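New to this. Please check both lines:
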Amino acid sequence: MNPANCPNVLAEGTCSDPVCQYAHNIPTCEHCSHVFATESEYEVHLTTAQHKSRVAGTSFAQHCSICKTNVLGGEKVWRAHLTGKKHCAKALRMGVSPNIAPQGPTATTASEFCDLCQCIVQKQHWNSHIKGQKHQSRQMFTRYRNAIEESESDKNGISVTGTFDFNLVEPAAAAAGVRTTVTITTSVPYSNCVLQEFRLASSHGRRIGVPAFSVALDGTTTAVKANSPVKLVITLKVPHIGRYEDRLEFTFRDTQLRKTFIITRTLKAIIGNRADHEALRPRAPYVPRTRSTRYDIKETIPGVKPPALQTIRFVVQLPHADIPQRLKALLSGSEGRKAILNNVKKLFLPQELNTKTYASQFKYLLWIEEAKMEEDLERYDILNASLTRHNKYYYLDVPGLAEKRPSVLVGDRILVQERGATNGRWFEGHVHFVRQAEVGLCFHSTFSQHPDGHRFHVRFKLNRIPLRRQHQAMDHVFTEDRILFPEDIHLPKRPSRVALKLFNGLLSSNEPQLQAVASILSSPAGSPPFVVFGPPGTGKTITIIEAIRQVIAEVPQARILACAPSNSAADLIALRLGSALTPSQLFRFYAPSRSKAQVSDTLLSYTHEVDGHFSAPHVSRLKRYNVIVSTCVSASFAAGVGMPRGHFTHIFIDEAGQATEPEAFVSIKMLADIRTNVILSGDPKQLGPIIRSPIARELGLEMSYLERLMSRDAYSLKTSYGRVVIKLTKNFRSHNAILSFPNERFYDNDLKPCADPKIMNRYLNSSYLPAKKFPIVFHSVSGKDDREASSPSFFNIDEVLQVKSYVQQLKSDRAFRTTDADIGIIAPYHAQCLKLRSALRSVAESVKIGSVEEFQGQERPVIIISTVRSSKEFVEYDLRHTLGFVANPRRFNVAVTRTQSLLIIVGDPQVLSLDPLWRSFLNYIYLKGGWTGPDITWDPKEPVDEKGGYDKKIRSAAEIDMNEFARRMEACTIAEVEDDLDANVDRPWRNVE
């Protein structure tokens, strides 16, 4: 709108309406030709990658032969160009189709095209571009690849033939040694070439153990004659599974021409069982998934909700808490993560976290996480699915359902649309039951018009109820500083200590456990949260159970709500309390969607049912229970059915380190009052909550309430021990050699090994141990990480086979008997878990195989870890992408502390050693004698640089090697010029007019 027409303009030319729709001084970006509604949005735009790219003058481009122009941007921009009016009009005038393939960009009067980097660069920025690190790196690598290609060609009449790729070799044959012959011949009748030198590229410049390949001359002659070829013998001898590669370099000298030249051949071998490799190999090459074009939803026909959702009568309505549109648009934009992160901070988040901004901060973080969860669900959309009808239910097969990929619960919604439909209408099917590989849906009655045999597009919808409950909690005005932001002034002056008549005698000799129970019991109403910091195997849950029982026994009016982030952790609390409490004292609440088949028979008597579904009794009955146990999110049921605030004198949250802060506060903000005491137990050094959004992670959603409290000065172990925090220090799980490294790195060497000697020493002196008194093995495997079809998850066949070998040995060993239940296998990638299950199906089907997250809180006599990643591309090394989340310190801590007796790690040291934590651990194992497989390639006694940078060092070393090789290849050419200078000394000059 024209600002001249605005009725609100004042005499000085400004507008009196702050939200005027007329265009008064609207900010515009001259570089990008974008118009912005507000100054703040314009400032945000200035930080975006798109704007910076335009200003810098560099962007990727494709050339349109119709419009004779370079189109800046990716595939999306190119498609938009093809459908543009100007392009289509020009195509029509030329009589050609507008749907043309892009061509390589070309230089214009204002720009240059860099062939090496495949990008358009404005001319004024050309010099800075070619001097840039990326361009220089690509230039160096191109030079190296050209040198390699040149060296692999036969030349000067010399031909090098033989088998250089050993392909798949059975382990027994490789251990004994496999040989092949190399023949060097010449096509020149009177050749004067001599094999001057032959060597392996691995034989110089790096620390290596025994090389996999060796080369020897067959005979004594090195002169290559037409009727007398030179022969060499290549031997592959290696006792370990894995992949091996080297470069064999032949240096020849033409004695007549006095020229030197190089010919190279690449040696390769895979050591492993052929049948296993064939069974596990990728069935289709990996193709990165493109963002799916989800069909628009213009109308949704509601489905029929399952009866389970009607079993609880809530008196408090749940808010919708939909994602704000502006935030949703920002998160779904094309800007990079860093730009989105900065924009979220600037536009939505408060500058400081305090009692006033607390709810707003976490509501936005929840919305950011929700957006990512919804996006990730797209992966599971099913195209062309069939539905099978039985009575009122429609059955849908869901691939990956048994592994919770996707996770589907009773009450969830799944949308379906008949294939080919263009009206934007979708039918909502509510999940009424979940089986091993299929779900049962119930639709609106009009869905029956679709005949059998038709195909449908299936779209999974995020179950927003857990998120809505967290938003509901954030909306409550409980903002006690002693709970949210405790300071020293809130703390008791000295640790409390009371005489205890213990229910569990095992605590009697454990001072930290006794102090924790005493402090919890004697804390006056309205105290700050008490934290039981429980490192691995220190009896954290036992301590909490004892504390709950003591409170019930000593405080008659006490009413306790005990929560945990997961049903399994909540069940553990209920089972241990159930041995002492009756069903009239203890109530275990389950969400109505939970199946009774998932619940222990022991706990069923502590539940309440309505029409065969889990429910909650009347408030009057709920008030009489001494203890109510639920998950953190489900704890909202108590407030929802009308339980009064302040009814619970104590709220316990076990495994609090695994809950997000909004999860933990569902119970606190909705049910606590100024007198309620909160007790948290967990370990901030182990895994935190699972957060899908990297933006939400970076903004703090991954930090649990427990961890945030322990980072405050008021919770310093030095000054507040026994007052508001206790650290348990007796480890009852692991052998000292296993405990030693994480104890030093994560727990200040406070942990004391107290495990049963019969358990922790179980595998000492076994054949699995390179050092018979050291129960840790690192098995070095140089493998290959692979991906299957469209799945981005990695797997490593070589590591699968090595893990299988260990399991077979363990199962067949009569001296050290091991059952499936004794073994746990941890792999950080889902695809590796699937491959391991497939490989072990006939060997040890009951062995638990899973991610680190699935093993937190568990223990096994034997833990085998497969780290999976094994990359050889050192030139463009990216530590974050190469190691993935293998290098996460908490993931590392949980993985290595699950084992009681024997820890076996299978991995590629070349990759793991890039991370300082892993490098230190590998040094520890090597120096203790626990290393097996190909030898370490660095000095394990050299101090580890905790700042890292090992990826840069390897990349730099690789570049030096490549430059050195390229220079040697070029030197051969230069030598010809130098020889010509010497040869022409006695040659007469030719007269030229």
Remarks:
- The first strand starts at residue 28 and ends at 29.
